[in-house]
Amino acid sequence: MKFYLGTHQPAWLARRLGVRLFVSHRRLAGRKTMPRAQGPWALDSGGFTELTIHGRWRTTPDTYVTAVRRYRAEIGRLDWAAPQDWMTEPEILARTGLTVTDHHRRTVDSYLHLRELAPELPFIPVLQGQIIADHQRCADIYERHDVDLAAQRLVGLGSVCRRQASQEVDDIVRALAERGLRRHGFGVKTTGLRRFGDVLASADSMAWSARGRREPGCAPGHRSEANCLPYALAWRRTLIDSLSTSQRVNPTAGAGLYASASQTRHQNEDPSCSAVAVMRWPALTRCMP
Fold it and tell me: What is the CATH number of domain 2-205?
């Protein structure tokens, strides 16, 4: 399984981290200059935030395509990009005033439209839903539009990140595996990776940042660890080690995925943070002075 470390900090793309990153369009849009990627990364469309704030997509497909073309050209090393999909969490449905079926159709329409506008860009289809039948119906809509999901490099699995500790989500992920899909889990936390990481092709997570908000900053200028690079890398290292121990992750998948902690620490020592020694610690607490 390929693991993408989510980050609010696009500048991390320019660092030789030896890890894959997951960055939102909302963090890149409007920048005058772009970082040049030193490793592979994937692009989130920022749909959850867009629909939460506005109840609809205000970013047009043409604008999004123009942005993704720029990211691929100026940042480089883009693995894939999410479409402008429509999540189906209850709070999102309440905000849009639409049904799950409406969101299915709009999600599929977005993928088809983006693919038509820019067939050269690596957009992936995404499945949305709340129960197994929802995700299966969403997959059926793609198939009716002649999208062979089993032939796609990845198929995103949406609207599960807040329910991943449940048996229902485990069942959804495994049921979709029977369709032969290479699934990417959006926003998968540690609990979810331990439950169904063995049947995912890839996943991303920013759970480290949520945890870091509750931790005191490791250096002057760090109010918390929510955007601390050494903290994020230490969290990832602990996660990968725990999953490798339980044989939930294929240790041969993805160049650089299993760089040693000492190697990662050496590559990423940050003079603004005195906490790089945390990379040696098997248990993650906080960046130690």
Answer: 3.20.20
